[in-house]
Prior knowledge:
The protein has helices at residues 14-20, 26-39, 49-66, 71-82, 99-106, 119-127, 170-177, 198-216; strands at 89-93, 111-116, 133-136, 152-157, 178-188, 220-231, 234-243. The chain is an alpha/beta fold. It folds into two domains: 14-66, no CATH class; 71-243, Rossmann fold (3-Layer(aba) Sandwich). The chain has a seven-stranded mixed β-sheet with strand order 3-2-1-4-5-7-6, sandwiched between helices. Helix 7 links the parallel strand 4 and strand 5 (178-188). Helix 3 (49-66) packs across helix 6. It is globular and about 40 Å long. The two termini are 16 Å apart. The model is unreliable at 5-25 (pLDDT under 50). It binds S-adenosylmethionine. Residues 49-50, 53, 71-72, 94-96, 99-100, 116-118, 121, 138-140, 158-160, 165-166 line the site of S-adenosylmethionine.
Amino acid sequence: MYKIEFxxxxxxxxxxxxxxxxxxxxxxxxxxxxxxQLSAGRTDFKEDVGQFYDKWAEHYDQGLENSKYVAPVGGxxxxxxxxxxxxxxxVDCAAGTGQVGVELAKHGFKNIDAVDLSQKSLDIxxxxxxxxxxxxxxxxxxxxxxxxxGCYDALTCIGAVGVGHISEDAFVEWNRIVKKGGIIVxxxxxxxxxxxxxxxxDVKNRIRAAIKDLVEKRQWExxxxxxxxxxxxxxxxxxxVRRL
Length: 244
Ligand SMILES: C[S@@+](CC[C@H](N)C(=O)[O-])C[C@H]1O[C@@H](n2cnc3c(N)ncnc32)[C@H](O)[C@@H]1O
């Protein structure tokens, strides 16, 4: 039986993040703090996640560069170990401003679609010229518009499975759109924060249980699960699974 234990992360709070950011950029600090609130399930974060990323889109890349956000590099390295065919059709879920797509293109992948609920982030993605198609839709229980069953050879979802973002509900839809034998790489179990709320703990437990369940039901084969560098020198869990 596959046993899932999320990495135990260092405690991280918003003051720490500001101290760690070597080149403070006002927008970045504000947004990173908001992300902390959102991810920690704090009740004082009221903003709609799509609108939040729409507002951040223009400064997102520069801000995260200063924040040592390396998850897209790590995630794509994992995918490229498993997908040899550079013409494979890949869907980048929660593509945001396209950082994962850019890494995929660096590895020679040519057929990449993007899905995200933030249209402004997708507009930035489009400007990078690495995506074939951009789909503005939410990832959850819903069917992604215009996407046929089993049409993708691989799926990435980096920096988005967790509190306030994408829940385990999306796994069913991932299984619908990825063909049998296809590869799924995603990060989850985001960095931990001081005074983690009960909601955040519950969400992490639900995600962990859903992954375990899919592996036990032989819908996923766990190919790899490791702690990888993520943000501000802290780590998060990276999963690589085969859709069975
Ligand atoms: C931290 S960003 C990560 C973006 C990109 N994958 C990266 O690594 O830079 C999270 C992204 O998830 C998207 N997102 C959050 N919840 C979503 C949902 N339920 N459905 C679709 N996109 C979502 C946001 O719009 C945002 O672009």
